Predict the 3D structure of the following.
Amino acid sequence: MDTLIHSLRDITIRRISVSEMDNNVYLLTARTSGAQLLIDAADDLPAIQSMLANASADTSATPKLELVATTHQHWDHVRALPGLVEATGARTAAGTDDAPELPVTVDVLLDHGDVGNFDGFDVTAVHLRGHTPGSIALVYQDPEGPAHIFSGDSLFPGGVGNTQNDPARFAQLLSDVTERLFNVYPDDTVVHPGHGKPTTLGAERPHLAEWRSRGW
């Protein structure tokens, strides 16, 4: 069952957890226009379609899935992507460096700082190198509250994403997360990771030096 996790002024945010890997799938719906952005069609197409159907309650318009964004290329985040695209005709987006590895043609290539404009809300792409070459986070800035970061597998409660014990990849990811997220957004910013529970930048910020010293 999907969960309505945030009911904001301009959008709603729904989430489902799918697969044996507890992948999070997020859906943003504009209240007035019905424009929708889905983040990470990880698995379980029927569950995703059920979430889309339930989101009709979140808007006064007819909902329309306009874009499916993929945070990174790993297989567990894209298993339902071909089926969802075929069923809905939605356009697709992914980081430029990961897009060639996706199982669908990517319509929109995302680089650091790119802004996606939907009818009723915008999201900003943040390139976070290290977990994969083209990993991106997507950020929604609520006009009346904290920002919401959909971080994929680049930032979790307790640390950054897996870099396969590669010191260079770890240093790159931690630097990007520090410079492009922690140094930009305030403590009340909500982090919605690709697996598991949410957190805030404020909860994680005191541990950045600890993460760097432990090397993962």
